[in-house]
Amino acid sequence: MTKVVPSMIRFVLFPLLLACWLPGYSQPPAKGEGIQISGAVKDSLTGEPLEKATITLRGPKRFTAFTDAKGAFTLATIPPGTYSLTVAYVGYTTFKLAALTVDKSHLPLGTIYLSTKTAVLEKAVVTGSRPLVETKVDRIVYNVDRDITSQGGVATDVLRKIPQVTVDASGNVELLGNPSIQFLINGKRSTIFGNSIVDALQSIPASQIQSIEVMSSPGAKYDATGTGGVINIILKKSKTEGFSGSVNATAGTRQETGSVNLTYKKNNLTLSGYFSGSDQLHVSTRTTNLRNSTDTATGNRYFLGEQGNSDFNRYGYRTGASLDWDAGPRDNLSLSFAFNQFGNTTDGLFNQENTGADPGGTKLYDQFNLRSAKNTIRNNTADMGLDYTKKFRREKEQLTFSFLYSAGQDNTGYIQSQRTAATDSLFTGSTSNNPGRDKLTSFGLDYAYPVSKGLLFETGFRTEIESLISNAAVYTFNPAAYAFLYDNNQSYASTFKREVYAGYVSATFKAFHWLDVIAGLREEYTVNKAFYSNSGHVNIPDYNNLAPSVTLSHAFDNNQMLKFAYAYRLERPEYRDLNPFLNLADPQNITTGNPNIKPEIGHDFQLGYNYNFTKDNTLNMMLVYTHNSPDIKSYTTFYPSFRVGDSIYSNVNVTRRDNIASEDRWGLVLGGSFTPFSKFTVRPAVQLYERVTNNIYSIPQRISGFEYRWNINANYQFPKGLIVEGFGNYRSGIRWQGRTPDFLTYTFALRQQLWGGKGSIGFVAVNAFANYLSQHSVVEGVGFHTDNLLQIPYRSFGINFLYKFGGFKIKAKEDENFLGKPPVEN
């Protein structure tokens, strides 16, 4: 550990020196004609900046400006005189200043605080809220509570609509084309994502999500894990006084969900609780798999053909409670507990032909079999969290402590067997039950200190300790005994422990009076220890990573912003990537881990442009370049015969994760939000990529290909609370050892608001004009070529009902606008 000390000193001093050096070289702005008026607009309760607020100055002439992502605005070249000033933002009380004398070269107005409008309807309250999509300097915020038509779905349904995010037909998520994503819940990790991210996301109802933050180039405050970036799911937290809640239920042909949310707030104490459940009804997927292989040494040719159906079912439920206590004007304590259970079952029956022939065409064997396979996954996770925030008198100065304990129990199992088609006699098979335990303990301390008006310094540290214990009892079929017998060669016990010690420094400042800078450096030291009963102690080296990040942005006067960002990211190999256990659930397609995998290192560069040409019309463009070296991917190798213990399997593909050489990706991302006429909004998004992969195991070693993704969302708000929406989503296949499938999905939805917004009823149709979603993929390598066709039942119809209830006691005053000072905290 002594080797880490010099690097720790470097990473503490470097950003601090950088932060202090750049402002010192700042140059004063050039003087222009007229007077400049500047200021900022923020929420009076949260202190958060309000982006796209409208600033209007009326006098001899009229001037208009909009606030940027930090809430700042500038009115330039204003002639001297007396003006009236108004600051307006949707859902907030308008700030008005009747007489503003402009007679100086620069007139700073400071910070203007706006309070939300509140309209009382019987015992309910409708409060102005933020737009659906907020584009900020370092992230995209998708406010799920504003997405009316997604309220009956799950987290995956919401993610499909977010710019820069793609979700395929199986629920796998990509961020800017990269599947290596760090998922967080309320800013924290959870073992819920350890076993199956797809199942975990399917278990979170959209009705319990407040917003989703997408950070494709995160700063030093965030873990460096995830070469694609970070997606933070923020659950709902009511700020309403009194007792309130909501009930949400969905019935459909493919999925059913239900949830209850309850909150009680009295003065400075808030208690919340929730329960939700989901069930994806049984669907039967048609599978056709054709593989042709050649033994490059002998010239023997092999064929494996399978055709059959797999029945699939997924289920899950979540429950939890939280306590939020404002212990004083500047002290907040939060306690939370959550329990989650989810699982799925796949049960398939396949007709199989397995043949081998010599170079002359003489058959070595020709087998017609009936293969059955059943896989089960069940996961239980409990999360307990503690957060304490101390705010100081100095604006933006605060200390935050966070603690998380997450414990999960994973239980996976399978049983597979093969029978001869002619005699229906069992000749091979195996079964396994694999219980495991996953524990994660994390605590961190963060401190923010405003060195000066234009310089914010942040630092902190975080420690994560994770342990995984897994045991697999494997039984293989013995033809002589005609029974499944315990297999010592495949059964195993394993223990894996990982410790991550991280610290960071970050500085936010303005350089040369026109460039906004967020620069930081994070150091993460990783300690790995592993034991596998069949392999003994595995030497997984420790590693130390210095992760710099920087974001440079400039906001122009005409509501345009230019941004450059760089971030160093890494992907640590997961437990299952490292586990050398051979999974024989399908003996012709074996999967295994590799304890020698090194972490994937990613360098992410972005150049972005944002133009808000009116309050409701925005255009976003971004150039992307990523370089991963080494890169981690799954790779498949063909074996004419493959020995496992005392058994030899013929015509086998073995897939394992490994470090290939590198991958480079260039991309163009376009998107925006447009309102061509009142009540009608269109949000298109396009991603174009050129990907080049250098693979040390492949022939050819260089694989390149062009890929693209697009989605479009359009909605229209009719009178009397009716909203209609259409959504389309397409992703082209990706070239990697073959080609992944293309897919196209589309959704139509409508929702009618009831009882003054307290309730609603909605209808959703997904892929209404086709029962099956066809997924054709190709996997190829040295000596083999595989064509796979999946026909997934995807068409579905659903109806959703939402009802909000509770009394409200929030009072808003017209004079709750503040100029130059924040509101007094209660």
Question: Descriptors for this entry?
Answer:
22-stranded antiparallel β-barrel, disordered N terminus, 65% strand, 5-stranded mixed β-sheet, single chain, mainly beta, 826 residues, 47 strands
Per-chain topology:
Elements lengths: L3 H21 L10 E9 L10 E5 L3 E5 L5 E7 L2 E8 L6 E8 L3 E9 L3 E4 L2 E4 L5 E3 L4 E4 L11 H5 L5 E3 L5 E3 L5 E5 L6 H4 L1 H6 L6 E7 L13 E7 L6 E11 L2 E12 L2 E26 L6 E28 L2 E27 L5 E29 L6 E23 L5 E27 L2 E24 L4 E4 L5 E20 L3 E18 L3 E3 L4 E13 L4 E12 L3 H4 L10 E4 L7 E15 L2 E12 L2 E14 L2 E14 L1 E16 L2 E15 L7 E17 L3 E10 L6 E2 L3 E12 L4 E8 L5 E10 L2 E10 L2 E11 L11 E2 L7
Parallel strand pairs: 1-7, 14-16, 32-36
Antiparallel strand pairs: 1-4, 2-3, 2-5, 5-6, 7-47, 8-9, 10-11, 11-15, 12-13, 15-16, 17-18, 17-46, 18-19, 19-20, 19-45, 20-21, 21-22, 22-23, 23-24, 24-25, 25-26, 25-27, 27-28, 28-29, 28-30, 30-31, 31-33, 33-34, 34-37, 35-36, 37-38, 38-39, 39-40, 40-42, 41-44, 42-43, 43-46, 44-45
